[in-house]
Structures are given as C-alpha cells and as structure tokens.
Amino acid sequence: MVYFTAEELNKFVYLRAAFCETLRLFPPVPVDFRSSIGPDVLPSGDHIGPNTRVLISFYSMGRSEEIWGEDCMEFKPERWISEMGEFVHKPGSLYLPFGVGQRACLGKELSLKMMNTVAINVLRHFEVKVVEKQKITKTNKVLALTTQHGLKVRIKKRLRN
C-alpha cells in the first residue's frame, strides 16, 4: 500500500477529474428534493409558495447541454482541467453530487482523496479490464443509481520486477 500526503494527492489532477466526470454523469443520488420555507423565486424565474417541494434531478443536470455544452453526453475528464494543467472547480450550483451550501458534504475532499488513494493502489497492483459484451441494466431504485447486476471486470495481479 502506498500512502500520499494531501499535497501529493493534489498532483493527480487527471484522476480527480475522472472521478468528478464520473460523478457528473452518474451521480450516486440521481434525484433529491428541497422544500421552500417561504415564498421564493427559482433561478428559472418561476415563483413558488411556502412549503413547496422542488424536485432536483442531478442526473439530468449532469447531462444538460445548457450547463456542460454540446459534448455533455461524452465522458471527458479534460473539462475539469485548465490549460495550465490544474484542476478546475465547478460552481456548486452546477455540480451537485456532494450537495451545495449548508447541506454540502463535509467529507467531499476527504472522500475524493480516499478514492484517489484506493484507485492508485489497485491500479498499481492489479490489471483491471471490463468484461466485454456484458449487458448493463440500471435498477429502478430512485434513491441510488446502481446497476442491476454490477459491472463485471477481470482482475489480474501485476507482476513485480
């Protein structure tokens, strides 16, 4: 197992971008709702009354051409990297897998660093290949975005020199 400092993990820009791009297209929680305390005006200009539930589709937002551009359906980690090779943070109101504002996930940075550490160590010790021609079916669950039978992969231990 290889361990990294927070500063060292910040250097794995492409890996972090790949995780963020994955969460953009496949948010773990595809929909959620918020309730208004009083009358309010939505960013769309629509007026809502007090105690109104507003459904938010993170899944749809991640595929919105208006937000992400014409290539919104493509997996492109490069959209998270500046021309200088630095990670680009997106506004919390556009990228919601970790929430935003008062309800934002306190463990966002820690979880991204842990995902990087696990991915680096797995890829360092194993060769991982997705099984071709498998049928991937999404479940009908509303609370979590999962596949019905998972994603089958072949794992082979890397030989050390």
From TrEMBL:
Chain sites annotated for binding heme: 105
GO annotation terms (biological process): lipid metabolic process; methylation
Domain of life: Eukaryota
Gene3D superfamilies per record: Cytochrome P450 (1.10.630.10)
InterPro entries in the cross-refs: Cyt_P450, Cyt_P450_CS, Cyt_P450_E_grp-IV, Cyt_P450_sf
MF (Gene Ontology): heme binding; iron ion binding; methyltransferase activity; monooxygenase activity; oxidoreductase activity, acting on paired donors, with incorporation or reduction of molecular oxygen
Cofactor(s) needed for function: heme
Sorted UniProt keywords: Heme, Iron, Metal-binding, Methyltransferase, Monooxygenase, Oxidoreductase, Transferase
PROSITE patterns cross-referenced by the UniProt entry: CYTOCHROME_P450
Similarity field: Belongs to the cytochrome P450 family.
Official protein name in the record: S-adenosyl-L-methionine-dependent methyltransferases superfamily protein isoform 1
Gene source species: Hibiscus syriacus
